[in-house]
Amino acid sequence: MEIKFKKLTECKIEDIIRAWNRGFEGYYINIEMTPDTFFHRMVNEGLSMNHSLLAFHGENPVAILVNGIRTLNGKKTAWNGGTGIAPEYRGKGVSRLLMEEAMKIYEKEGIEVATLEAIKENERAIRLYKRFGYEIVDSLVLLNGTREFGTKLDTSIQVVAFRPEQLSQKSFYKENVPWQCQWQSVKAGEAQIYYDSENNILGYCLYRRIWSKDGKLEKVIIYQLELFSKIHNDIMDKILFSISGEVGNQVEFITINSSLSNPAIQYLLANGFQKTTEQVQMVKRLN
Description:
alpha+beta; Aminopeptidase; twelve-stranded mixed sheet; elongated
């Protein structure tokens, strides 16, 4: 079976969307795309059409791999933001060929660190990535929980609002987090830094609020929540209230690809939030 590869810049959008939707058909979570949602994701998350691949069997688009490239901690870093194979081509070596082609791109671009995430239950994919030199470095979770604040909370913490891009200038900002949680992927979001009454830093949050058409807050997506002091119910409620700004309405909070070892995430799990998805973060060091 002869498989040929093209960059996404060389492909018709109909072929790209077909390859994506067929590639993730029957996947663990529904990530079906339209042309609009696909391009929205590529732009928002800093993914590269020129470094992403479509695999063809004849004229039929049968697989896709999307890549992003950034410099993080002084190292040129690539992220595999999704590898999908059409159901009838799975188990036939197409994923291996696709990964080999991606490695050629990484070598050409001088990539020093390659990263990706995989659903914990997707053992076949994890085995494939391990064969290409990736190692599991962390367990990541997506959490879901709701809060309703009956009255405005009196706060003993100081809240300072920042733009996401300003966080990168702060010494305490964690740059080495999953790609979608980095400030570069959340430019449309918001950020807050928290201080106590003596101006000691308590932590920070990078998040995005989603509004309905009628102007009601639907959900708050938390990309980073880092707290540097002892976590208790009082401070967590004040932070959740601060990032939602809602009184009298039930608000849904979602955390994205947070490290399971993060004390703030452990606290949310112990206080009513539910784990919806667990992934492994994998890293490959290149010469």
